[in-house]
Amino acid sequence: MVKLRQSAAWGMFALCGAIATGFAVATLTTPSVSSISESVLEPDSPTVVSSRAGAPSFLVVAGGGAPSYNEIALEKNVRYFQRTLDHLGWDPAISTLFFANGNDGQATVRYIDRFGRERFKVPDITGLTGAATAPNVQTWLETYPQTPKGASTCPAFMYFTGHGALNDDNDDNNALILWEEELLSVQDLAQTLDQWPADIPFVTMMAQCYAGSFANVIYEQGDPTKAVALQSRCGFFATVKSRPSVGCTPLVNEADYRDYSSSFFAGLSGRDRLGHAVESADYDNNGTISFAEAHAFAKVDGETSDWPISTSEDWLQRQVTAAEQQSMLAQPMQRWLDAARPEQQYVIAALMDKLGYRPQEAFDTALAPKARLMSPPQEVLTAYYMRLRMELINVAVTQKLQIEGDETTLKTLNQLLDCEAGTW
User: Which residues contact 154 (CB under 8 A, 6 or more apart)?
Assistant: First the structure.
């Protein structure tokens, strides 16, 4: 029988083909920033030396589809990503960065100045590779397996911070809005990944409206009615497929930013976007913070209306009916707290505390939160409530599947959890 593993947070990012194990020192290749065409066709042109071996390839796609919604917060998110890399010991120059209009010198970044006036400026991102156009992004994705790192089965990490498009006909196939308002759908991305060798892992973190639809990238052709791909794929998303997200603001003061990117990278690195230390997200006390632990940190840290979700969580919720979910929520929350992994225990305990719930209560009998004079806004309280509901279901469905013991199902779940337990 296949048993459900408690995956180590070390994860796949510690290995990169035969290149390295752990954090041994090695000379690595990086994307050229001298021209768009060189970087797109060769994401690994040698320009700098990294201090660590086994580097994944980092692809950043960011910005709005047009100047009218290419907010300065999106530019600042890219810079925070770069600071996160640096804090974790990676040279930020190893990333391929596609942002809005790229390096053409046009003032496209929208912001509000200190007098309250709308202004536009030229993108200012160190090492900017080029524009976040569909051809640039698609070419990078298509050619990565032929690059030196792709050929060595080094994993790829894709970070998207921008805007999402809701597919009214099929919200399992929403899209990213790229520069010039071109779209990259869930199925577009998944079908490209279908052409990759199965031994190249792919991880994404996406912070945009309707982002949760991209959890379907785990399936062949991005279609949840088809099989889960053999390739290791996983992702973390600001909110579920049917809801808008927060964080795209023209305001310039980062101290006021509240969004999934801010919380996820703070959890992963231990530093918020102002450089201040945050409480450690090493919930299993193994000395390493995994993507899953950063995601858990974000569920509690994010004082927003978002409902964050990961690929494994979306997959789990598809394994049971609405009636089965309701039955699970009729059980005392303590039952699921006891069955949870460490990062899930943190989320459940912290959100129960925020909502004033007792572990002996069942979620379905607990009072829905109501905003009061000194409480968080109603939309934040509702988000805490829904995040807790989702977390309880994640744990309960996992236990159900483990008891049932279907080998194929548990193998799929282990594959997703192993991917999510990775780190940089």
Answer: 16, 17, 19, 54, 55, 56, 57, 200
DSSP letter string over 171-186?
Answer: GGG-EEE-GGG-EEEH
User: Beta partners for 157?
Assistant: 58, 203
- Which 3 state secondary structure label does DSSP give 98? strand
Residue 361 is classified by DSSP as S
Cβ atoms of 235 and 214 within 8 Å: the answer is: yes
In the chain, the amino acid numbered 8 is: A
Residue 34 has pLDDT above 80, yes or no: no
Q: What is the pLDDT of residue 54?
A: 61
Q: Are 44 and 149 in contact (CB under 8 A)?
A: yes
Cα–Cα distance between 218 and 224 in angstroms, integer?
8
The model carries a pTM of 0.90
Q: Which residue has the tokens 């990086």?
A: 30
CA atoms within 13 A on the CB side of 340: 24
pLDDT at 344 over 80: yes
pLDDT tens-digit map of 14-25: 446 533 322 222
Reported as a pLDDT band with limits 50, 70 and 90, residue 373 is confident
